[in-house]
Amino acid sequence: MLDVCLLGTGGMMPLPYRWLTALMTRFNGSSLLIDCGEGTQIAIKEKGWSFKPIDVICFTHYHGDHISGLPGLLLTMGNAERKEPLTLIGPKGLQRVVSALRIIAPELPFEIRYEEITEAEKTFEMNGYRLKAFRVNHNVVCYGYTLEIDRAGKFDVERANLHHIPQKYWRFLQKGETVEEEGKVYTPDMVLGPARKGIKVTYTTDTRPTNSILEHAKGSDLFICEGMYGEKEKAPKAVEYKHMTFYEAAHLAKEADVKEMWLTHYSPSLAYPENYIDDVKAIFPAAVAAKDGRTVTLAFED
Ligand SMILES: [Zn+2]
Ligand SMILES: [Zn+2]
């Protein structure tokens, strides 16, 4: 099961009733955070989730509303006596940007590992999930992220018996591991059916609509997408500042055939995003004008 929380829904600056856009997920005792603007650690506190299991922090890009909360969060994680290494993932320049921010948080009781993305796409396998970063189109280098959890095929007891595989090895094969015993090799494909549908979540903000989003969001259970503007007359502004309107996000959701879309990264001038949701739903019915702290638990089907 994957817990997903959209910690905040604001763009540009935090407001008294709206934290900056950031996503937190929990899977198998490991947490992931994408983006960390000013106040993100307060949003995590409000949600009641723990800082301790955050093993990975990803950045879409280095505008202040997506990274300025990092030094404070690192200090808080240090105060909680974290010892395990923390992995940071982000576009080229990651180590330079984070080192500059860390002038005010120089001593931490844990190691920081950097994963700088220089290519158009990069895949990371870790903590039981797959994270794919893909380049989008903002006024600085920016990436979207897709998180996928695979699900192996059904275990076939009959085939396991047919191959005379000792029962003590079944659980390893079920986990996709190969087992060797006295010259005999047992592989998962001997006992597992075809892979079943897993879980897929895509998060993308601060970008114009792109083919890379369409391609990576394809079939997502949840697609979290920026919608900077709800007002239709602000479409030229979205083009100029390289953001999206609600309707552009809805068209992406429809074309990518996702199950559900949550809008986020609202302009500070947009006080009531839900006022525009009917027109969004006319394009893509399973759309939500998300509010801070919106949470879902995604499980494997059936
Ligand atoms: Zn932003
Ligand atoms: Zn930006």
Overview of this structure, please?
The protein has helices at residues 40-47, 64-67, 70-79, 94-101, 157-162, 170-174, 211-217, 235-240, 246-255, 277-283; strands spanning 2-8, 22-27, 30-34, 54-58, 86-91, 112-117, 121-126, 129-135, 143-151, 179-181, 184-186, 196-204, 222-226, 261-264, 287-289, 294-298. Helices cover 24% and strands 29% of the residues. Helix 9 packs parallel to helix 10 (277-283). The radius of gyration is 21 Å and the shape is globular. The protein is of the alpha/beta class and 302 residues long. It is built from 10 helices and 16 strands. The chain has a 7-stranded mixed sheet. Bound molecules: zinc ion (2 copies). One zinc ion binds at residues 61, 63, 138, 206.
Layout of SSEs?
Blueprint: E1 2-8, E2 22-27, E3 30-34, H1 40-47, E4 54-58, H2 64-67, H3 70-79, E5 86-91, H4 94-101, E6 112-117, E7 121-126, E8 129-135, E9 143-151, H5 157-162, H6 170-174, E10 179-181, E11 184-186, E12 196-204, H7 211-217, E13 222-226, H8 235-240, H9 246-255, E14 261-264, H10 277-283, E15 287-289, E16 294-298
Parallel strand pairs: 3-4, 4-5, 5-6, 12-13, 13-14, 14-15
Antiparallel strand pairs: 1-2, 1-16, 2-3, 7-8, 8-9, 9-12, 10-11
Helix pairs in contact: 9-10
One zinc ion (ZN) is lined by residues 61, 63, 138, 206.
